[in-house]
UniProtKB/TrEMBL annotation:
Name of the protein described by the UniProt record: Phage holin family protein
A UniProt-annotated Pfam family: Phage_holin_4_2
Signal peptide positions on this chain: none
UniProt entry keywords in alphabetical sequence: Membrane, Transmembrane, Transmembrane helix
Transmembrane regions: 35-55, 62-85, 105-123
InterPro entries in the cross-refs: Phage_holin_4_2 (IPR007165)
Amino acid sequence: MVLVIRLAITAFAIWLAARWVDGIDIIYPKEKDDWWQFVVLAGIAIVFTAVNALVKPVVKLFSLPLLILTLGLFLLVINGLMLLLTAKITETTEYGLRVDGFWTAVWGALVISIVNWLLGVLVPDGKD
């Protein structure tokens, strides 16, 4: 249940980033009903979560010297790259996430991180 709530928070954060940051768009079938927007958004959230779970730890390991040198600020770049990778993966289908450039991805990743952090405080992690 916690995983579903976290995926919903991630989907909401991606939706907010698409609303607030110019250059980030969610492509979904316009001729269908609004339910398809939720389905596409859930798919994007699943891909984003998988990318963050599988690719991000490896990238963080290889960029450890830069992370230490920049006192962790390089994580913004890594988060932007993970958003770009999510966009490239979902663009292989007809629908998905479209990000116009690197700095747009960094701003979008910043919005997603802040929203995930703010709403993630409300969700118990099940470690109690």
